[in-house]
Amino acid sequence: MRKKTIKLLSALICAFICVGLFTGCNKNKTSDKENQGNKDKITTIRLNEVTRSIFYAPMYAAISEGFFEEEGIEIELSTGQGADKTMQQLISGSVNIGFSGPEQVMYIYNQGREDYPVVFAQLTQKDGSFLVSREKHSEFSWQDIKGKTVIGGRPGGVPEMALEYVLKNENIDKEKDLNLVTNIAFDAVPGAFKGGT
Fold first, then answer.
1. How does 93-128 read in b/e, with b if 16+ C-beta sit within 10 Å?
2. N or C terminus: which one in the chain shows less Cβ crowding within 10 Å?
3. Domain check: are 163 and 103 in the same one?
4. Which of 140, 141, 111, 135 is nearest to 193 (CA)?
5. Domain tally for the chain?
6. What CA–CA distance (Å, rounded) separates 183 from 51?
7. 179 belongs to a structural domain
8. In angstroms, what CA-CA distances link 118 with 51, 62, 91, 98?
9. Using CA atoms, how far apart are residues 95 and 44, in angstroms rounded to an integer?
């Protein structure tokens, strides 16, 4: 059943891509009046991003400069404040597209759902997390975080997995060498960091 569903989804995605390619290559010229009529047809896309991030700056600029509107697309942008919340919005049908890490789709697929989301695009090549400190370090070394408290992301999320990957590569034991906090809600992390809690 799952293989058939995956094959069907793959075929549909390929068909949509082909239709999009051929539609974009249409040689028919239309009059200015016809073009104006097409611009009046607006397609609304409800998009939920996991967080406000510099990595999405091109999208923010395109929305702000009206590039989507020029193509007849209105973007209704909302922020989920966590990949799990973005995925809830997507599954519930509240949004059409969710920007989040691919791990969310795997978690939902592993739950045995037949209506799991599909990853169809890569927006960034790197995780958008940063390691920051309250104290200035002119020459940082990963060994400097030993004995410190580090606020990680949600267990199983891309930011947390990226941090654990770096720690492992630097021979830092996340259980013994530092206090790794992973129980703070995504949108509460900045306040917890500032407050020192």
1. eebebbbbbebbbeebeeeeeeebbeeeeeeeeebb
2. N
3. no
4. 135
5. 2
6. 18
7. yes
8. 20, 24, 11, 10
9. 10
Q: Scanning the structure block, which residue is given the tokens 């919005």?
A: 89
d(CA 79, CA 51): 6
In this structure, the answer to whether residues 120 and 46 fall within a common structural domain is yes
103-110 vs 83-92: helix axis angle to the nearest 10? 60
The pLDDT tens digits of the residues spanning 16-70 come to 444 444 444 444 444 455 555 555 789 999 999 988 888 788 899 999 999 999 9
- Residues 116 and 174 occupy one common structural domain: no
Q: What average pLDDT does the structure give for the chain?
A: 80
What's the rounded Cα separation, in Å, for the pair 155 and 61?
Answer: 32
Nearest to 70 by CA among 47, 95, 33, 36: 36
Residue 91 to residue 82: CA distance in whole angstroms:
14
Give per-residue pLDDT as tens, 144-180.
999 999 998 888 888 888 899 999 999 999 999 999 9
Q: How far apart are CA 79 and CA 161, in angstroms?
A: 22
Expressed as residue numbers, the domain containing 180 is 142-195
Task: Output the CA–CA distances (angstroms, integers) from residue 183 to 53, 132, 137, 165, 188, in the order listed.
Answer: 22, 18, 27, 19, 10
Query: Same domain, yes or no, for 59 and 85?
Result: yes
Give the span between the Cα atoms of 86 and 95, in whole angstroms: 9
